[in-house]
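Example 296, ligand adenosine-5'-diphosphate.
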Amino acid sequence: MKRFVAIGECMMELSPQGDLWQMNVAGDTFNTAWYARALLGPDWEVGYQTALGLDGFSDRVLDLMQAAGIRPLVTRHPSRSIGLYAIHLHQGERSFSYWRSQSAARTLADDAATLASGLAGADAIHLSGITLAILPPEGRDRLLGLLQAAPGQVVFDPNLRLKLWEDPQTAREVMTRAASIADIVLPSFDDEATLFGDATPKVTLDRYLGLGASEVLVKNGGGQILARVGAESLALDLPRVTPLDTTGAGDSFNAGYLAARLAGQGAEAAIRAGHDLAARVVRHAGALMPMEDIRA
Ligand SMILES: Nc1ncnc2c1ncn2[C@@H]1O[C@H](COP(=O)(O)OP(=O)(O)O)[C@@H](O)[C@H]1O
Ligand SMILES: [Mg+2]
């Protein structure tokens, strides 16, 4: 059995439905694990590594993982619960409010042995800048140290959420360290322009290639995807759709791309697979599509 492990934070999500709120479960790396589970074959185990509490909302997340066929690699904190975020829509633009500063997931790297055992034997490990942002400095060091020594492929999506970082300089330093350990880096251009001041997607591509990654794909909303995969350079203009809700676009793209690559497909086919999935996800409300619809 081959193993894909994603690591990070999964939360309760509140999305506005008129005057009411709909509650779902979501979180960037969790979304990627969800779509990867749908797309990878039965020869792959997909695990999700995080920390939850002992409360009913934490149980709900665990039940969802089990029902989806995602192996929970979960420690349970005795007093903390899971984080919560709410989506605000203002003139079509989305913004987020977070209640996650005391979430159980912030302790996911507290115990070195538990952290190592979840990641052990993984053929591919996926993390994001959000995974790193929520950890205390010693947790970041512990996780990055394990990834540095991991024999499998390390996949990193910087996925900037400035509010989660103590300051932009720390975000730049930690993201750069993570990317220099990663084999595959999957940034989105708007994040990189914000944090690093990149003027063009080419600047982003070259910066991450310079840190040693062998595969870098620069996502850019519905715009051109610029990539270097091994010796192959690609610039793909793929069909743009009118989005209904862009939540989960980057996360599902990552899963579509990775599932195709892990199944042995070439770079262009994998980018198209990632884009096709993400283009469906943005026309769907919420981060997660039902498993059966993803495979359809
Ligand atoms: N309007 C769109 N039409 C088609 N595909 C889209 C659209 N917006 C996003 N995507 C797909 O989702 C991917 C990620 O989008 P991006 O906005 O860069 O990520 P994020 O969700 O992390 O902000 C893009 O590379 C593209 O494949
Ligand atoms: Mg993103």
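Summary: The chain has a mean pLDDT of 95.
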